[in-house]
Write a structure and sequence with these properties.
By secondary structure, the chain is an alpha+beta fold. Helices cover 55% and strands 15% of the residues. An eight-stranded antiparallel barrel has the order 1-2-3-4-5-6-7-8. A hairpin with a 4-residue loop joins strand 5 and strand 6. The chain is elongated. Residues 273-297 and 312-316 have low confidence and may be disordered.
């Protein structure tokens, strides 16, 4: 082929047809340029396709990462709820010697090291490739970015604060003879310290501030955001292996039916799946609450995980910050004031 074009060029020159030769030369240059452009286009398309596959793979891996982090938050939140109860029992002098001896209450409840240990390795890889994010993933990417830069940063702060508090609590024990707690006598002396020492109450208060009011609270915020991202990302990836236990609809559908409360109120809790489409939204579910005389009506709103409210037509009457399910026929609601209401299912 090269020899063919050379013969044409040589013939044009020999015939002194310079104008046609120049046109031929220009055409040859354009063909070469055109060929280069096609090659570059194919190469760029292949590179873009490969890059998109890599980004999609990172998003798929981040689903597993989010699921693990949500589980870790659940563990920490439930653990510190128990520690919160122990703290209040401590301050009210309601813990007995037998509670510690029989291990109904952990003896080291405020010196154990418990942190969330969030894993953001894959999410961080995504954040470092912000310019490669496909258009349809840009919104969920921004949510992941906020989760990493804000929610995780808050948790890291309170984890460090909690670690410092626990270290101080442990160091304070060094001055006591019972500190090693190798013998039964030393363990008994430690229990007496837990029951009677004002210093222990001070350390307990500092622990509660960092663990319950800090780490557990911001773990709840992280979990709420992570759940929403988890389902939005799962929908974009058309994943069929999502853990639906995180879904509000899955968590609260069992509440359907007739209930009676410890305050002699009759309740009919109504569930509709369509109300749970926006996880953590303002209104995700409701129940109708009637007083005995039927003169007043209150609505119970499920505002999000661990966030409930009873509302009149104009104002909230009570906010619930905790719902504890005992079984499918019994649950407790704890208000923001610490009041507990027990609900029992009504059977026909």
């Amino acid at each position: 082929m090269i020899h063919f074009f050379r013969r044409i060029r040589r013939g044009l020159i020999n015939q002194d047809r310079v104008g046609k030769y120049l046109l031929y030369a220009i055409g040859e240059i354009l063909l070469v340029v055109f060929g280069i452009l096609i090659a570059l286009y194919i190469n760029n398309a292949n590179t873009k396709s490969q890059t998109e596959k890599e980004i999609i793979s990172l998003f798929e891996k981040s689903l597993d990462e989010l699921e693990q982090n949500i589980d870790r938050c659940n563990y920490v939140i439930n653990l510190f709820r128990l520690r919160d109860s122990i703290y209040h029992l401590t301050m009210q002098d309601k813990i007995t010697y037998e509670d510690y001896v029989l291990k109904r209450i952990p003896i080291n409840w405020n010196v154990d090291m418990n942190t969330v240990d969030l894993d953001h390795n894959t999410i961080l890889q995504l954040l470092n490739r912000e310019n490669d994010i496909p258009f349809e993933f840009e919104e969920v990417f921004r949510s992941l970015k906020h989760l990493h830069n804000t929610r995780k940063t808050d948790i890291n702060h309170f984890e460090k604060e909690l670690i410092d508090v626990i270290k101080l609590n442990r160091e304070s024990h060094n001055k006591y003879k019972w500190f090693p707690m190798y013998t039964e006598e030393e363990k008994q002396a430690y229990i007496e310290y837990l029951l009677n020492s004002d210093e222990h109450r001070i350390f307990a208060a500092e622990y509660k501030h960092s663990a319950v009011d800090g780490l557990a609270k911001f773990s709840l915020y992280y979990r709420r955001s992570a759940i929403q991202i988890y389902y939005e990302l799962g929908e974009l990836l058309e994943s069929s292996n999502l853990n639906m236990d995180f879904n509000l609809a899955q968590n609260y559908s069992w509440m359907n039916g007739q209930w009676t409360s410890s305050e002699d109120l009759d309740h009919e809790i109504t569930y509709e799946a369509k109300q749970f489409d926006v996880i953590g939204g303002k209104l995700s579910g409701w129940s109708n609450t009637f007083f005995d005389a039927g003169e007043w009506q209150l609505n119970m709103y499920i505002l999000g995980l661990d966030n409930f409210g009873i509302k009149t037509k104009s104002n909230y009457a009570m906010t619930f910050t905790r719902m504890t399910k005992i079984n499918d026929d019994l649950f407790h609601m704890v208000s923001n004031k610490g009041d507990t209401i027990t609900y029992n299912r009504v059977f026909d």
